[in-house]
Amino acid sequence: MATTALAPDRSAAPEHVSLTSGRLPRWVPWALLALSLAVSAALSFLVSTAAGSEFSLAGWLIIGVLLYLVLIYVLSRVVEGARRAFDRLITGIVSSAFAVAMVPLISVAITVVTNGLARFDAEFFTSSMRGVLGEGGGALHAIMGTLLITLAASVISIPIGIMTAIYLIEYGEGKRLARAITFLVDVMTGIPSIVAGLFAYALFALIFGPGIRMGFAGAVALSVLMIPVVVRSSEEMLRLVPNELREASYALGVPKWLTIAKVVLPTSIAGITTGVMLAIARVIGETAPLLITAGFTDSMNYNLFDGRMQTLPVYIYSQYAYQGIPAEAYVERAWAGALTLILIVMVLNLAARLVARIFAPKTGR
Asked: Mind telling me which residue stretches traverse the membrane in this protein (predicted)?
């Protein structure tokens, strides 16, 4: 009579991983990190006490991370081997670099939120600085100016940038004109913002005369900075669309322009939207070109083609650079304007993610 071997019980609890099993337990890296930071804190405290100086937070972190990298590499090499040890070392270096990159971002966010909340009230969002000296006033004129100028710059830049990218990918592949356009776009990407502002001011000064200041001139200056970013990001997204989709459309007799409109653009719309929002975030905080072209004012102005127009970056600069009495009121308005500008960029990015998710091609069956 044949006997059937019993299958191993796979539902049993996993075996405990020890140092002798050729693999480090999950808690070991965290324990080594805590130990390294503790030893580094003790050493930094002793050195600062002996030298009579303050405790160095940066020195403590640097010594702790370096000690951790040495310990995790040595221990992993003994237990797991050279390949796994090198992998853990690189992982530690990359994680440390990420933490270093996050430090200034978190620091700026905390500083802006802490100082900006002092004037983050209803008056700040419902009034301008017309007739205000000292305390009070708001930034409604600057917020509206920023939104109007950025909207006008987007209306100018987005169609030009996307259509340029379509030509480079779909029509100009390998042509001399396409190579020239690509070179010029790369050059425009590195143009300083003040140069774009001077260009827009010179253009409008030739048409309307010297001393002209208007919101539309600021929009033109920002569009010069936006167009190359939109072109490069859209170009990369269009390049990622598989050629099989284009060929399938052509095989059905669909003309090229309709293939681009109905197949290529919908497929890459998520990436294009992200690139557009990056371009908007790139220019919405520019100060120098807007200071030259749009100027600054304390009153409301909804007309892009008539008179000076205030924007949030220029508002922040003017409040901080030209402080009156009391100086704290001007500084508080500057920090509140900075917080408002960050929140506007955050809202725009969230809206871009929502649009990208809604219009992204559906891959489910």
From this structure: 27-51, 57-76, 97-118, 138-169, 181-208, 214-231, 263-284, 334-356
